[in-house]
Amino acid sequence: MRFGRKGSPVDSWSKGGIAFKIDPETGELGRGLFHPDWGSTKQVARHPDNNAEVTGMVLSYWDEIKKVARKAATVTPGINSIGWDLTVTEYGPLLVEGNSLWSP
Question: What is the pTM assigned to this prediction?
Fold first, then answer.
């Protein structure tokens, strides 16, 4: 799960965003990391811009999110690795895009 930073128009890890680990079974967020080029490699539990606790949050619609990603993977056979960007709306998850060149 990526979170953007104040002053950045994107949430990309390579542009200063924070990547938080997701437990694949439960959707619970673990600790987050910054890209080494953007500061400390120390793990964080809170978002540095607003001090909100992120670690321990459980993603809404987690089972549905996994279904969307799995379904997308079935229509892209032969591609060994895709970074799926998904969002969650009030109606559930939506696929935004898939990236062949991805990072957390």
Answer: 0.82
Coil, helix or strand at residue 3: strand
Q: What is the pLDDT along the chain (104 residues), one digit of tens a residue?
A: 888 888 888 887 777 788 899 999 999 999 998 877 766 677 899 998 999 999 999 999 999 999 999 999 899 888 888 889 999 999 999 999 998 877 66
For residue 72, CA distances in Å to 5, 28, 30, 83 come to 28, 22, 25, 11
- DSSP per residue over 4-69, as a string? --TT-SS--GGGT-EEEEE-TTT-BEEEEEE-GGGS----BSB-TTT--B-TT-B-TTHHHHHHHH
**Half-sphere exposure at residue 14, Cβ-oriented, CA atoms within 13 angstroms:** 4
Q: How far apart are the first and last CA of the chain?
A: 8
Strands 2-3 and 29-34: unpaired
